[in-house]
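quick one before i forget lol
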Amino acid sequence: MSWNANGCRSYHIIVQIVKGPGCGVTAEIQIRTIALDFWASLEHEMKYKKKIQNEELIRSELKSCADVIASVDLSMQTIRDLIYEDELK
């Protein structure tokens, strides 16, 4: 899992095509929860929009949201594991 200073938490997988068409092409695949994808969309807009009012406040709020999302994701995974614990054994 990758953790950035801005709060982004996602899995990054680097893949490279080794045979056939596209041989040598490298790509990065990011795996996110739905909530984190929504967060990342807003963070992306912040990064590439030129003039933003209240930028520091928005960045601070985004970081807080990223922390909450990480906590909720962990709780949801725990709940899922508890529901399916018999099947996981």
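fyi The chain has a mean pLDDT of 85.
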